[in-house]
């Protein structure tokens, strides 16, 4: 069933609002390229909107009631925002769940090496990437270095126009006859993703001591500018990401080219929809921005950890529902969720990968995926028909432009989200998000219209009674 192009439906006032929202999103993803940066910025916005730290509320024994706004951070890498509704929490919540990690390169623990007067950081790719896409483009370093004294050194190099940038080199075309015969997956091997970071040797008085002078020169810079030594890099989280800001794409400025649309094009509208609630909702509204989705949602900051249910249990207790598990189970089972994750968008250049009537199209609105997974829906949450109908009604009542989609042709590939993890509680869950071109590439493309419709759709969902 064909859906209209969202651009043809807007009033002049909506077009102004769309551009304003797109501008704020561009600023957000340009400044926040790691999960830590996203969570830190989200907390600032939440506190400005009246959200209080759950840890403080627990320590003071605060009592929560309808309208109370609470946030909880998990090691600065995942975040939950909750506004209590008029109904008891045991009747369920309306939940938006997105992830704030994106495919990238991570610096290894023993990373620094010198080869032929060139110094490199050795890296390990994170998430699903086409490795050849990461060579010869300007790269930046974001992250933290944890020192033994407990201090944390924040690093961001390559974003300011005055900063240096970094690069992974490639073999020149003149010598590439053998390389060009390889499969795309083998053209650039993982162990060749070495980040070039320095070239100038350290000048020393001892002319006989010529070992690793470039590396030693770099370590001197790290010591002077950041107060860290080579051993401190063992306890560092340094992420290699494309350098530079997101930009308007196209002469009509209708699209956005940027790093990390997967999944910040869903995380940011979710955050803004949660913060924009101007009246106390009927049902408690919860937004979770989570880490580690790109590697299976594992680890203490991923969706498979107990962070989510522990936070909900604490809020239930402060709201007077007791500390037993029954209230928690009732709350989670009665909840509804949008697993807010991006969808692939139809690309005419690669049309054979898509089934046209069951794919998302750029500019046609928020995309709903009844299921994801692989092949025979393996590893997916498959939303029930009644829930799909309910979502259709809510979107239509609020005038949201929306469409349905699958992730490419059956048996061609597939993918997953956090939906199945939340569905284990018995709550109703459906995947939905912004269609993306060139998903998982260093620079991805989305339509401003789809971003705007995600914001409108998430707002509508949070008001479901």
How are the secondary structure elements laid out?
Blueprint: H1 12-31, H2 35-48, E1 52-53, H3 54-60, E2 69-74, E3 78-83, E4 93-99, E5 104-115, E6 118-126, E7 139-146, E8 152-157, H4 184-187, E9 195-198, H5 213-226, E10 236-242, E11 247-249, E12 255-258, H6 261-275, E13 284-290, H7 307-318, H8 325-333, E14 336-340, E15 343-344, E16 366-369, E17 373-374, H9 385-397, E18 402-404, E19 414-415, H10 419-423, E20 428-433, E21 435-436, E22 444-447, H11 448-462
Parallel strand pairs: 1-2, 4-13, 4-14, 14-20, 15-21, 16-18
Antiparallel strand pairs: 2-3, 3-13, 5-6, 5-10, 6-9, 7-8, 7-10, 11-12, 12-22, 16-20, 17-19
Helix pairs in contact: 1-11, 6-11, 7-8
Describe the fold and architecture.
The protein has eleven helices and 22 strands. With 465 residues, it is an alpha/beta fold. The mean pLDDT is 94. The chain has helices at 12-31, 35-48, 54-60, 184-187, 213-226, 261-275, 307-318, 325-333, 385-397, 419-423, 448-462, and strands at 52-53, 69-74, 78-83, 93-99, 104-115, 118-126, 139-146, 152-157, 195-198, 236-242, 247-249, 255-258, 284-290, 336-340, 343-344, 366-369, 373-374, 402-404, 414-415, 428-433, 435-436, 444-447. The protein has two domains: 6-102 and 259-462, Aminopeptidase (3-Layer(aba) Sandwich), CATH 3.40.630; 105-242, Aminopeptidase i, Domain 2 (Roll), CATH 2.30.250.
Give the second-level CATH assignment, the architecture of the largest domain.
Answer: 3-Layer(aba) Sandwich
Mean pLDDT: 94
What is the alpha-carbon Rg in Å? 24 Å
Number of discrete domains: 2
Q: Level of helix content?
A: 25-40%
